[in-house]
Design goal:
This protein is an alpha+beta fold. It has helices at 8-11, 31-35, 57-61, 109-124, 143-149, 153-156, 169-183, 230-257, 259-285, 291-320, 331-348, 368-388, 422-425, 443-453; strands at residues 17-20, 26-29, 50-52, 69-77, 80-92, 98-107, 128-133, 138-141, 193-198, 204-216, 219-228, 327-329, 352-356, 364-366, 396-403, 409-414, 457-462, 467-473. The protein binds adenosine-5'-diphosphate and magnesium ion.
């Protein structure tokens, strides 16, 4: 067969086909190629407005070369642009000499459109998106990622993704990837987690990373969707600081309200000190140098001054604690420590304060002073509620701890007051809501803020006589 003949068998093939001489001029075009606008005797590129080729125009005009070649060509039509993928192959004669080129075209318009859409979706995405291959090399870095990390995509293509990570992840990332490929054990894929990243300028910042795995025809890709958490963390930090300040103000005002009982608590040892000092002086005045009696009196004096010092120290701890910190603490120990502070207040009102701790409670990760503050507020409210009705229903406040079925530690303060009136119930935890003439109405609102800041809940219910206020705290450490 020579190139000039029209092979009738290909005339009606369902795809475009042409045969060109090595100068690029078409010798034969089948019906499908002709319907693309191709004509015999013209350059094969004639139906197209543009041809994407890396080897340049010269390649197009001076022959197709000996290797199979693939390139994309664009055609403007009244219905818009269409793209074709042209595959060409040199045809050889029996002696192995090139006699021309055979070319076909596939319409890839829809495919290109889909790809372009996917690219646009990637680049207009609010979240940063980084795609890596199975070796951890970056294959895509969208515009949001460029803004977040300060790199241009072109700088990072083919680079290991661990450039975006601080140590120790930078070093360990290859091992993570390998372990996943070996074992299929998912540490992050499909789960997502908070991590630190490092940008072009060395700034360390927190982010949320969700990774998904894409496997197209055995070609593995990991897509990371990234959200910068800097602002969220800052807002959380601000909210936390505000909570701390509020809690601190709350403690100051509680102490202010308790001045009477505190003064009483300090006056007792002071009075005792004065008394023992007096009796020492009397002994000396009499000229008795009974060292045993003198020593005993001085020892008691010392003991009382320590007691006064303890009261002051406890109050100081309670009030000065500005910078809150969390630690693993026993709620029972915390509460029995608090009873020293609350006990005198109760006694002054003729109220019995009973503590019924549950024997085996797990520790709680909390700010001990803040938890004491909440319990103290609940106790003081209980005392107020009972004093208001002159302890008609009884004069006992019971503080209990228990482990709930959900595995949380619950603290409850049960009183014998008149309970919470139905029309008060909904406003109880609102700031400045009070039914007391000298009340601030901040107590419960601060208490709830503190407990919720600890991941717990605070609520109440009425009982036969009085109310019971209770709060729960999650057990375990912060990471759980
Ligand atoms: N144990 C209780 N029994 C009945 N009412 C209570 C009890 N605790 C709180 N309350 C009601 O909730 C209101 C708000 O309490 P709180 O926020 O501590 O502010 P304050 O004690 O300054 O009034 C109280 O004024 C009272 O009406
Ligand atoms: Mg109160």
């Amino acid at each position: 067969m020579t190139m000039a003949e029209s092979p009738p068998a290909v005339e009606h093939l369902p795809f475009p086909l042409f045969v060109a001489a090595s100068d690029g001029y078409v010798r034969f075009a089948n019906a499908a190629w002709r319907s693309l606008g191709g004509t015999q005797g013209r350059l094969w590129t004639q139906p197209f407005g543009a041809v994407e080729t890396e080897t340049g125009d010269a390649w197009l005009r001076n022959g197709f070369g000996r290797l199979p070649n693939v390139l994309n060509a664009m055609q403007s039509t009244p219905d818009g642009v269409r793209w074709y993928r042209i595959a060409s192959q040199v045809a050889l004669d029996a002696d192995g000499a090139a006699i021309g080129v055979l070319g076909t075209a596939i319409d890839i318009t829809d495919q290109r459109r889909a790809e372009a859409e996917a690219e646009a979706v990637l680049d207009t995405a609010v979240d940063a998106i980084v795609v890596i291959d199975s070796a951890g090399r970056i294959t895509r870095f969208n515009q949001a990622a460029e803004r977040m990390f300060g790199y241009a995509e072109a700088e990072l293509l083919g680079e290991p993704v661990n450039r975006l990570m601080p140590e120790p992840h930078r070093t360990d990332h290859d091992a993570y990837l390998q372990r996943y490929k070996d074992s299929g054990e998912k540490k992050i894929i499909g789960i997502g987690r908070e991590l630190d990243a490092i940008d072009r300028f060395g700034r360390l910042f927190p982010l949320y990373l969700a990774v998904s795995e894409v496997n197209v025809d055995g070609r593995l890709r990991f897509t990371g969707i990234i959200r910068d958490l800097t602002e969220r963390h800052a807002a959380e930090e601000q909210a936390r600081e505000q909570r701390e300040r509020l809690a601190h103000v709350g403690r100051l005002s509680t102490m202010g309200e308790m001045t009477a009982s505190i003064a009483h608590e300090i006056n007792q040892p002071l009075t005792a000190i004065a008394m023992y000092a007096q009796s020492c002086l009397t002994l000396l005045d009499r000229g008795e140098v009974d060292t045993d009696r003198l020593g005993a009196a001085l020892a008691k004096l010392n003991q009382q001054s320590l007691r006064a010092g303890e009261v002051i120290e406890r109050i100081q701890r309670f009030v000065l604690n500005q910078d809150s910190h969390r630690e693993s603490a026993s709620v029972n120990r915390l509460l029995s420590d608090l009873l020293q502070l609350a006990g005198s207040d109760a006694r002054m009102h003729g109220i019995e304060l009973r503590f019924e701790p549950s024997a085996s409670l797990p520790e709680v990760f909390c700010d001990p002073i803040q938890i004491q503050q909440v319990a103290l507020n609940l106790i003081r409210n209980a005392i107020d509620a009972m004093a208001e009705i002159d302890c008609r229903n009884g004069n006992r406040v019971t503080l209990r701890t228990r482990l709930t079925v959900e595995g949380r530690v619950e603290v409850s303060v049960s009183d014998m007051g008149s309970g919470v009136a139905d029309d008060q119930a909904s406003r109880l935890f609102t700031a400045f809501h009070t039914t007391k003439s000298d009340g601030m109405g901040m107590g419960l609102s601060i208490c709830r803020t503190i407990i919720e800041g600890h991941g717990g809940t605070l609520d109440f219910r009425n009982q036969v006589a009085g109310a019971v206020f209770f709060f729960t705290l999650p057990t375990g450490t912060m990471d759980e």
